[in-house]
Amino acid sequence: MAVTKGVTTAGITELVKLTGSFGSPAPVEFDYIAVGEGSGAYAAGDTTLTTEITTSGLERVQVTPTAAATHTIQWTNDFSVTGSKTITELGILNDATTGFLLLRIAGLSTDVENGYTYTPTITMKFTSA
């Protein structure tokens, strides 16, 4: 399967709330990376990863987003792997357990095993029309 990626409809809604400082519940920043092993291409209506990994040192983690370049946000983390998994999807969310999915990358195929450090770097660039 080809790699597909994009910003979700729910993510856009939350970005608008965050930018305008309004909405209920109060919007919070997108600062969690989730790793998954599910299948299926990205779709704008995605609200979660298909199958989020919650074991093997690949649990969802809070990170500090950085400015990678002009109009570009970057998220990265060093996951210390404690089991064997095939990573097929990544996501950025705004909560430790639930939250809104800002973006999803699907169709990956990265095998990791015990002792491996997995370091995904996800960037999102804003452009004007």
Cα Rg: 14 Å
Look at the structure and give the mean pLDDT: 94
> What does the largest sheet look like?
5 strands, antiparallel
- Structure classification: mainly beta
Oligomer: single chain
Task: State the low-pLDDT regions, or none.
Answer: none
Report what the structure shows:
The protein has 129 residues and is mainly beta. It has 1 helix and 10 strands; from the N terminus they run E-H-E-E-E-E-E-E-E-E-E. It has one domain (4-125). The strands form 3 sheets. It has a 5-stranded antiparallel beta sheet with strand order 1-8-7-2-3. The mean pLDDT is 94.
Secondary structure elements and pairings:
Elements lengths: L3 E4 L1 H12 L11 E5 L24 E2 L3 E4 L2 E5 L2 E2 L4 E9 L7 E12 L4 E2 L2 E5 L4
Antiparallel strand pairs: 1-8, 2-3, 2-7, 4-5, 5-10, 6-9, 7-8
